[in-house]
## 1
Amino acid sequence: MTDTLTAFAQGKIDQLAASSLLRTLRPTGRRDGVFVERGGRRLVSFSCNDYLGLSHHPAVKAAAQAAIETYGTGSGASRLITGDNPLFAELEARLAALKGTEAACIFGSGYLANAGIIPTFVGPGDLILVDELAHACIWSGAKLSSAQTVAFRHNDVADLSAKLASLRGEAGRTLIATDGVFSMDGDIAPLDEISRAARAHDAWLLVDDAHGLGVVGDGSGTAKLFADARVDLQMGTLSKAIGGYGAYVCATKPVIDFIKTRSRTVVYSTGLPPANVAAALAALDVIAREPERVAGPIARARRLTAALNLPAAESAVVPIVLGEAETALAAARDLEARGLLAVAIRPPTVPAGTARLRLAFSSEHTEEQVDQLIEALRPWLPR
Ligand code: PMP
């Protein structure tokens, strides 16, 4: 006899499988920044966010190893108890300098960052306006805050302004939240206009720049692309171009001090392992020493978008939207048979009817590898 919990789970799994929406894990070894090992085969990956290949950079690995030798594998407690290894302050100072803010706070992950930051500043009676394509963890943070949460149309400042005008009056504090570089579309938010709208309506602006750091502009992310943009909360991760794990937010010192004393995902969660912090510092050193690396991912992405007559890539991410989940899965299987990994992204990660291959480019991809991908994709492109 099956218990009701197991029966519930099995029923859900069957439903998802019937609509090609079941997700399963595939053990995947990554021994360098470009190739992955899956199912006994070696594939060129266009699905990793390791945009600069730094997860396997010798200096980054050496820094992590040295930190393990000195400090061990874990932080031992929340940062507010005994987990605030001295490397945290060093990394926070580096990130604040990079972003041009007074201070920064490190989080365990990007998900934990947005889930922690948003409820720290807004709550019941307040308003959050979120770009409809913003990352899932921004929505989770909004939900945790219990503030009224309203989506605005993707990158549509007129819609945002209209919603600010109609809803702002009733609300207490108001927060606008968006990705800087959109994770599944690779396009960039119009931060100067969004920030102007925010100021006009006395709203705060949070930008998640997980996919901007190390890739966009001079490598410091999207905010600096916009001369006028004032981003109150500059959030990002250490898990993409930085090649490791963890996240940060940069802001004024009082904002950061308040986060450190009140954000639940800082207060009640163990500090990152010191090795992650050391690796991030070393990765930032590599980027500072070799700034030319930063141009690599977008150059490769543009090589593909030009060859396939797609809009020019704005970031390291290029979506090949195929429509139904089954089509995206079939395309991914076809590419995999050709030695290329481009994982199918399906709802609810992307809106229904926009299942896609989400391509992510690295400075470590060769032109030949990109050209191989271009040829493999041609038969799948809508005519
Ligand atoms: N924000 C964005 C835009 C992301 O794409 C991701 C993850 N891919 C996250 C936040 C979550 O970051 P993490 O993986 O460090 O939890």
## 2
Amino acid sequence: MNDCLFCKIVAKEISSEGVYEDEDTYAFLDINPLHPGHTLVVPKVHSKNILEISEESYKDVAKTARLVAKAVKEALNADGVNVHMNNEAASGQVVFHTHVHIIPRYKNDGFVNWQKTNPTKEEISKAGEKIKKLL
Ligand code: 5GP
Ligand code: ZN
């Protein structure tokens, strides 16, 4: 945990451009944004990602993400906003401290959120059945 980049940012051992802070969360500008205003929301208590974070800590993050998303959209006159998480390396997670990306988006900004893989209806239903069994 001591080697965690975002724990160091939360502790202000590494500088960042904070935009919001409360008792449980910190929001700061991404150093390599999709667009200016791309913000990261993190819990102050370390957890790896959504698969590990406590329900309480995730609620704290979700609360701040909602606040920040509205501010980012309005402040930057954006047309929309992505609220996004990468969880585990296979999904694109690089920093292993839970974080939510808040990304301002603009009409025709040219980015696609993900490519479609066109699975069959059967494949889609089968995946749904497997998930339902665990919920
Ligand atoms: P991930 O791919 O893990 O979901 O996203 C990690 C994000 O953290 C990336 O968008 C990256 O640009 C951002 N990032 C990495 N290192 C730093 C840093 O030192 N400071 C800030 N502000 N952002 C960082
Ligand atoms: Zn951490």
## 3
Amino acid sequence: MNERAEAERHDELARLRAELEHLRLLANTVPVAIAYYEAEGRTCRMANRRYAEMFGFDEQNIIGRTLEEIIGPEAAANIEPYRHRVIEQRTAAAYEREVRGADGITRIVEVRLLPHVQPDGESVGAFVLISDITHHRRAEAALRESEERLAKFMHASEEGIVFHKGGYITDVNPPLLNLLGYTMPEMLGRLTLEFIAPEAQQKVADVIAAAPETRYDSVALHKDGTRIPVEFIVRTMQHQGQTQRLTIVRDIRDRLAAEQRIQHLAHHDALTGLPNRAAFVERLERRMAEARASGESLALMFIDLDHFKRINDSLGHAVGDALLRTVAARITEALRMGDMVARFGGDEFLVLLAPRAGSSVVAEVAARLLAAVAEPMPASGVTISVTPSIGVALFPQDGATSSELIQHADQAMYRAKSGGRARMRFFEPGMAEATLAGLALESRLALAVRQDEFVLHFQPQVALARAGRGGATVLGVEALVRWAHPQRGLVQPDEFVPLAETRRLILPIGTWVLQQAIAAAVRWRAAGLGCGGEHERALPVAVNLSAVQFQTAGFVDMVAETLRAAGAEGSMLELEVPERALAAEPADVHDALARLRGMGVRITVDDFGTGTTPLARVKSLPLDRLKVDRGFVAGLPHDAGSVAIARAIVQMGHGLELQVVAEGVETPAQRDAVQAMGCDAMQGFLVARPMPEPELVDWLRRHAGSPPR
Ligand code: C2E
Ligand code: CA
Ligand code: CA
């Protein structure tokens, strides 16, 4: 029996042990540190592993130790009020404190003290439950910090920020209030859509509904109704403990202005501010489509400045740029509403005239442009004048596409140049081939200079005043250059002289002409062909000069040397200077002319009336003769304008004691007209065409002493 009792007790003990083991397991598994302290002596009676280890003990050696021993005297003193309350008042207490654990890590813990009260009401001890709330507290602190950061950010941001929930505004920052002109109370609680321009509201509503994280451009409304282009950057965020939508509102008026500037730069020429080629072509095509639909016609002008390169090279790019700006302004000014102008590149401009009646209107505009551009302009101390050459192509007849139209206007411009510059030409079918031929010539011209492919023709000039009284008094002979092109035959100077001028090839050509002309005059003298009634004086030869030649340093010396080398006198030479060449530096021109005249060389102003030389300037120069441009003679005797101009030139020339020569006289009526006006001499097909030297010699022999036809 004893044995049995012994066995039962053993079993009972085993069961208790197992139960205890379970409790211990449980105590060690829960994420809480647990201990039990006796009220008497404050000694630890039980602790789970977590508790023991927290203070550097294990479950066994912690038993029987006092509170002071376990948590340290300082901490024990700190929690004394709680302990006291639990034991004396038998109520639970809870507090938070920081525990620096045996592992050296400081944790934030929440401590709960529960009184152990006997049925008789005596409190015999206290349970201690400690949970680690470090993580929790840190998260809270982080949240608090982030809220603070957000608040700071909202206030520091220069951009507007608005929080909203379900489209209702919950928070805004001062910059947004500034941007929209509202106060905080005026915005809070209102719908975001109330601050959006009507046409932008749908998009905003869609974004609010779909709640994506996105960015888009919109238009906000200022309190005063001003529309403000903005960019919205939308994010979902935690704010004030709730999931909210944060929208950054960025004022993009500056950005849009910058974009517009970039647009402008991309479409405009930086120098003149005019639209550039690309922008022009775009608009041209739009206008062409409109005109096609309405049946209206358009006129496209291609404007190129004459000799611009020379100005640019000699006076510098700054002057060239200033000139281009002035020209751009003048062209713009001369046009009307609806006309378009662009800088095509370099010294080229394009003008599209708004649909208007007839080519006479186009000619009128061209005349206005020619005059406006040619107006002298001051540039770094000097006054310069630049003429434009204008080519016109009409839509629809001259081209179906923008490029064709521009190309044809360009070709017409090219012809205006070769026609003597400073004029307008309409496009004509066939110009294309001529222009291509011109281009081919250009590359061939340099070779022609080296291969000496030029020949001179000569055209006589006769006196008019005495023409009625018997013999045709031959006064001189004009040398006119031709290019004996191996394939194309004789090429007229109008086709290659302007080209040669742009390439400065005119210098060697001009020198050659001068030498050959003087050599011919020397031959005629030797052959006894003179001028004047008795052929007592040597027949002078007139040589045409280009402005480039005339303005080249050493030109006068070259002439003197050529005369000397040929054994000719100065009186055997006449130089024809185009009126336009007189526009150069007054002092230089005057000096050169005076030296030439000093050698006995005669100076004639050629093509007089086509330039814009002021009368005072003509007066001041040492000259002998004026040649009325053949364009005016062509209009005689019926065109009133030509009559008036020709008469004025004659009177003016005589007033300056200059001889006046009429060139291009083709008909007896023209001869009579120029004679009646008082011209001193004439030249033209009526008298003789330009001819090779042997024919000229025949002609001189035959006509000396016989009356002109
Ligand atoms: P320009 O100096 O005005 O020369 C007169 C032009 O009128 C010549 O044309 C001549 O053939 C032409 N002509 C003469 N009589 C008549 C007429 O009754 N009716 C018409 N319709 N025309 C007439 P060309 O030979 O074709 O020369 C054209 C221009 O080329 C000249 O105009 C001149 O500016 C230039 N040129 C000719 N030779 C030279 C030269 O050696 N050097 C330079 N720099 N230029 C030259
Ligand atoms: Ca001439
Ligand atoms: Ca002439």
## 4
Amino acid sequence: MSQKAQIGVTGLAVMGRNLARNFARHGHTVAVHNRSYGRTKELVEEFGHEGTFLPAETAEQFVASLERPRRVVIMVKAGPATDAVIDEFAPLLEEGDMLIDAGNAHYADTRRREAALKAKGLHFVGAGVSGGEEGALHGPSIMPGGPKESYEALGPLLEDIAAKVDGEPCCVHVGPDGAGHFVKMVHNGIEYADMQLIAEAYDLLRQVGGLSPQQIADVFAEWNSGRLGSYLIEITAEVLKQVDAGTGKPFVDVVLDQAEQKGTGRWTVQAALDLGVPVSGIAESVFARALSGGADVRKAAADAGLPGPSAGAEHVGGDLRADVEQALFASKIVAYAQGFQQIQAASKEYGWEIDPGAMAKIWRAGCIIRAKFLDFIKQAYDKQPDLSTLLVDDYFLNAVSGAQDAWRRVVVTAAQQGIPAPGFASALAYYDGLRAERLPAALIQGQRDFFGAHTYHRVDREGSFHTLWATEDRAEVSA
Ligand code: 6PG
């Protein structure tokens, strides 16, 4: 075979197909393969005019059509399906060739796969790709991990197809082995938190403010031109102004109120628990989805007539819409600060040396959480790469300081009127916990020492101590 492809894509469902088309549209010759050849043929028949595709019926033909070092993009369902494709292609590859997993794989799987394939002389790159089907075609944000030397051969191709901001690609080598998939996972966790906060803002404007979905759509459209401007705010306005054709009702009123989840938000929280990073905003968003999906227990609550507050008090002290905007912005800052703290903690744990500012930079376009706001995050980490939390950066400190009275009013109103706002309330609790001079954790240490002799430290001297609670004088001893 004379003509060789610079890159190949196996797995031609919509995401894989769109990535292949994106590579072809950028002038690359693209080998394409799918378990069922029919889908491969369809792709070439329908989109062959967009560039040069080399369709392959078998894995062997696919590999043979690739130039060295071979670059094989795997775009299949995360989990066993990915392992099956690796097992099919790895034996056909040679030293220095690379497999790129562009699915939403769990970073621990990516670390395992990378180590196993390195032992065979192959490169394995776990690359987070964010932006959905449209992003894959028109420019995603791409978060490749894997060996640094892989990026030399692979990076230029990924940067070609990535979204651009001021001509700069939303793609950078994140770090070794599973770093790319870890960052993508946290991106999704932040996405969950962002979506939850937006949903709470909508709920308050609807239930407390009495606004219609169309009116709230207008509010979000207005917010989208300000500091909250982002893809998620933009699409929220679109979803809220949608009218259901069949019933003539607002679309949001005919959708079953049970949020589903494929798992990346859950993984983020599980990883944060292991790292000891309090991602309360992301956790509350995962639990809020689980609560909404708990049809049986929600029915039991409804049947039992769980009482709510007496007649709702008015939102006092401020204009509800303006206060909700402040609460949304402050809570969003907390959620992002927590997500970035988790990335820094993992980077330290795994020795990935991730540049948080670079992550903010490649999230400015192409991905689901793309937002103007990310420019300020990038600036914060450019100023201080080892920033312990975004909340102490001048811009964010001032933004939260200016928002906190309104934020507190909103949390009070939600509580008084029985509107669930776990995102707003937990973000405020996190903020107050972070700035507290003394926390009640001292009492918890005392309790733990009382029932389990788990010892405690003191504020006034070094060392560990235990109190002999069962004795008359309850003397304190060094532990
Ligand atoms: C993205 C999206 C993508 C997917 C979500 C859906 O970055 O392009 O986040 O990865 O649409 O993972 O996740 P849930 O089904 O868990 O909401």
